[in-house]
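Incident log, support desk, overnight shift.

02:14 A customer reports that sequence design results differ from what the structure should imply. Their input is reproduced verbatim below. On-call engineer (initials T.W.) acknowledged and began investigating.
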């Protein structure tokens, strides 16, 4: 069987796993309460602490099982959050979890008042999904051809996703096209060219298995020169800033106000 690209790590899969099996394995090991508390929630906090505004429309590209978009929606209940991914498996999982959460948090009644005027009844269980204006939505989409109008989003996030994009150059152009004036794009990836002494210092409290996993992820990432090349060719280098954040490489792209 031909080895395929891993949607999560951007590397090659083991011959013992099919692509769909690898996605299911990733979902099972990543979409957990512990991962949310120790990884995704702190990451969302980090992003929001780095901006001086409350984004109204947020886009998570390569959202996978939907954990970051879900967390964004929880901490910003008045914002609209969209998660997009090319994987049917990932989007199906994200929607399944979200719909279950929405249903469990809603107390069904035979009738209720709307704006103190009209009364509506739920005849079919899925009606609640159509009635409410959902502020968290997941959809299958290609980052190189986003299904959104110009200047739609105030905040665009990619965590561990950029290296996996098939068309990185046009994806960058599309992100900037849908970015609102004053909005920002945050791209987080592992630092492939991190100095060895710095890597040892940052991972000295981790267990060997975790360190081995991190080394593999670093090796699968792009180096600084490759990121600069894509930013230059997309015409975004003058709007971008590259910085390091521990084991991460952070690219921040901002569209100026008109």
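02:41 Re-run completed on a clean worker. Output:
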């Amino acid at each position: 069987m031909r080895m395929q690209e891993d949607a999560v790590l951007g590397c090659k899969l083991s011959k013992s796993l099919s692509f769909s099996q690898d996605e299911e394995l990733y979902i099972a090991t990543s979409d957990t309460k512990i991962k949310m508390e120790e990884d995704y929630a702190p990451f969302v906090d980090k992003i929001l602490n780095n901006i001086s505004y409350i984004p109204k429309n947020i886009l998570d590209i390569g959202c996978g099982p939907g954990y970051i978009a879900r967390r964004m929606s929880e901490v910003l209940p008045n914002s609209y959050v969209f998660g997009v991914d090319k994987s049917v498996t990932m989007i199906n999982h994200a929607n399944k979890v979200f719909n279950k959460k929405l249903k469990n948090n809603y107390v069904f009644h035979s009738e209720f008042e709307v704006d103190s005027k009209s009364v509506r009844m739920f005849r079919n269980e899925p009606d609640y999904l159509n009635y409410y204006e959902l502020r968290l939505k997941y959809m299958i989409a290609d980052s190189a051809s986003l299904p959104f109008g110009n200047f739609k989003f105030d905040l665009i996030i990619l965590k561990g996703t950029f290296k996996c994009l098939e068309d990185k150059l046009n994806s960058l152009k599309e992100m900037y096209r849908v970015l609102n004036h004053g909005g920002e794009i945050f791209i987080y990836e592992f630092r492939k060219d991190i100095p060895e002494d710095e890597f040892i210092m940052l991972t000295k409290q981790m267990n060997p298995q975790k360190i081995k996993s991190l080394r593999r992820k670093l090796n699968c990432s792009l180096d600084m020169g490759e990121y600069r090349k894509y930013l230059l060719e997309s015409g975004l280098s003058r709007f971008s800033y590259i910085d390091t954040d521990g084991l991460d490489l952070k690219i921040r792209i901002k569209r100026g106000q008109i």
